[in-house]
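Protocol step 4 of 5: obtain the predicted structure for the target chain.
Materials: sequence only (see below). No template structures provided, no constraints applied. The aim of this step is simply to have a reference model before the mutagenesis design in step 5. Sequence pasted as it appears in the construct record:
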Amino acid sequence: MRFFKRLACLLIMLCVSISAGAVLKEKNLNSTLSVLRAELETAFYEQRNSMARYKMYTEQQHKQMVALMQRSDQVALMLYSQKQDFTFDMTYACHEATEMYREFNKRSMPYNNIMKRMDAELTRYKYLIETLSMIPPSMKRMGQAKQGQQPPKYIMDKNGKQRKLPFMLDGQGLHDRKACLDYATALARNLQNMRNNVEKDEQHYQRMSAKLKKMNDYAIQRYNDIQHTIFVNGDQSYLEIVKNMPMQYRSAKADVNEKYDEEKVKIANGGERKVYSQWRGPIVGGLSVFVLLYMLIAGMLSNVLVRWLVPKRYRTEAFMKKKVCLILFVAMLIFAVSVMVARTFMYHNFFLMASKLLIEYAWLLCAIFFSLLVRLPGEQIKSGFRIYAPIMLMSFIVITFRIIFIPNNLVMLIFPPILLVFTVWQWRVVKRHNANIPRSDIFYTWISLAIMVFSTASALYGYVLLAVQVLIWWMFQLSCIQTITCVYDMLAQYEKRYLAHKIHSEADAEKAKKGSMLSIITISHNKHINVTWFYDFVYMALVPMLSVFSLLLSICGRQMCST
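Step 4 output (structure tokens):
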């Protein structure tokens, strides 16, 4: 797409450089022709250099167009071959189709504007050539004169009498006029050739746009069908699945074999031919082993870094209580950064898709772990980790479902029991650890429990995909909430420890550190606005705006993971 943009800029610049061949009123006609010749000659050589660059960019643009056509055909084949029972596969294909159409329209070439500019330039050159040809002696009379003779200086009037022409160009003027005509004709011819090429490219572009629009319309229709299934129709309840367990098991097994076994095609001699695919067979198992091994390596490296790099004077009792959470935070950070770096060297489509989702999940965990490290003291850090462990692990299972494109029949069979187990787990940690965590985290844990209860009820009632959507949304929203809560906590610590010294006496500042002067400090901000303005801006405006934005961000994150 970037070549389209560069090519458009080059064409517009080319038209502008051609327009530079202009003159103003000189001393006389001969002087005007002399200046015009110089301008047109300069424009001709500039056009020749621009034409060379245009040819190079055109070749690159054609290669990009061919690659785009191949990619669109690939996406179309993927989209039109998906089955309705494989929702994750269908949503991924729809997302690729709509994203490609959006990106194509976003970087569209301004063909109409370019051709309008070229048409205006061609009209200008047409009139310029006509005017140069009609300057006495006109090129028509010059053509009537025999070779080697001067053009006639007299014309016959209606009465048959000779009449001298009103003015004639001298020898230099004729030479300049002839050169101007040659340059103007060459400029117009080259411009017409470019316009013909642009028109052909515009026709290819329009056909590509129509094809992508048709694919986008089909993807949107499939999106609507999926959303209707998720939020309105649903599937059969889990009680009905249990009643028909043998048939449901066979259906799920058949879908798993179809989805993950290597494709085998029978050949004429009775044998089989395997068809390699980047999305099935040992690739899925290999990715699982790779992720687990990579997380293990990241955890070991994190443990080494925390043990060796942290000075002994910082290894206090409070630090040792937070050590496990710190190791997990550093491990997820190493995992996210290393996978981001490795992703730049990947060309495998399945690994690219999976690594993107794993990076997003790792950053979400980093946000939660960092918030716990900053906000909770050593006595509460274990309880804080345990109350969020069920939702974090449940989110990993859901994202794994998305990565491996698990079939619907298998999701309906195994997901409701898994949700029920995790809901009971969440209830147990809430009852055991809520007394040892801050009030804000108590509120978040009850919301997490309510979300999991709602998801479990939805899955048991038949709305399994709705439960998946809700869990993914809450994972993103919880990470945003933890980040915002952490920011508020850091602002409160900054206000107590540093801001209080600037707006109060030493004794009041010490009381503020203990918490007894917090309300007084907040009220006195109005009297010390020159000192507290930045704090007030962040506390009262920036963070609340980020809180509202986090809701939209969580919805977008849920859509990215689900598609």
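Step 4 remarks: Residues 516-521 have pLDDT under 50 and may be disordered. The first helix runs from residue 2 to 18.
Proceed to step 5.
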